[in-house]
Specification:
The protein is mainly beta and 232 residues long. The chain has one domain: Sandwich (Jelly Rolls), CATH 2.60.120.560. Helix content is 12%, strand content 48%. The strands form two sheets. Strands 1, 3, 4, 6, 11, 12, 13 and 15 form an eight-stranded antiparallel sheet that branches. A hairpin with a 2-residue loop joins strand 9 and strand 10. The longest helix is centred in the N-terminal third of the chain and has 27 residues.
Length: 232
């Protein structure tokens, strides 16, 4: 005989309340970007920096072992805002589980914000992941919106000491060699995330209430970034 699952009236009320709470949270996250009036903005298009160098305002950190590779400003004719991009060059010998964070030390530390970046993953490595970091507090406490072209997955993840915890995923095609856009609407309720202008993730997470922004790659990923922007 098949197992029959029943609910008491109280459990039914709890279920209905939970469903309405999820809908309310999703609506609140969506409306952060639609209705919130931001008064300030910063943009890093990397065009005013010296080629083949990493300006002091950027702070790279690698966690997990192996060659950390190199972040440099370089020219790219396909850049969304020509002529320069910020490139994460492929490490020669990096652990597949290693990850690399680039903090932006002159970005504001804020709560509510809209953050975006253009990225292009270069094919060739065993890993092919690019990420936008928000609520960056230090090298082990932040949120990531991660685009993984190997596994065709867009994820919301939370960094904790010794761990990257991905709590929501969406299967989506992310071709290498093409420019893509990540947008994150960040509020007290959590994060709503867009890939190429499509709303794919809405995650309620209050672990970190403020922080700076940054960029992220994994393993031997080689990625170009352009037009990193924050409105707050």
């Amino acid at each position: 005989m098949p197992l029959k699952i029943t609910m008491t009236p109280r459990k039914k009320r709890y279920l209905v309340a939970t469903i309405f709470a999820i809908i309310a949270i999703s609506f609140a996250l969506y409306n952060v970007g639609v209705n919130y009036s931001y008064k300030k903005s910063n943009i890093w298009n990397f065009d005013g920096y010296q080629l083949n160098s990493l300006p002091d305002v950027f702070s790279p950190v690698s966690i997990g072992g192996g060659d950390e590779g190199k972040w440099i400003v370089k020219s790219d004719d396909s850049a969304p805002s020509k002529p320069n991009v910020l490139a994460k060059l492929s490490p020669a010998n990096s652990s597949a589980s290693a990850y690399h964070v680039l903090g932006i030390s002159d970005s504001p530390s804020v709560g509510n914000a809209r953050v975006s970046v253009e990225f292009k993953i270069i094919a060739g490595g065993t890993q092919a992941s690019a990420g936008l970091v928000v609520r960056l507090q230090d090298s082990e406490h932040y949120f990531i919106l991660m685009a993984d072209s190997v596994n065709n997955r867009f994820s919301f993840c939370r960094a904790e000491p010794g761990n990257i915890i991905c709590t929501q995923d969406k299967n989506v095609n992310i071709p290498t060699g093409q420019w893509h856009t990540i947008i994150a609407d960040v509020s007290a309720q959590g994060v709503a995330a867009y890939l190429d202008d499509k709303l794919l993730l809405q995650r309620y997470d209050q672990h970190y209430q403020y922080g700076q922004i940054g960029l992220w790659t994994k393993g031997d990923s080689q990625v170009y970034f352009d037009d990193l922007r924050i409105e707050y």
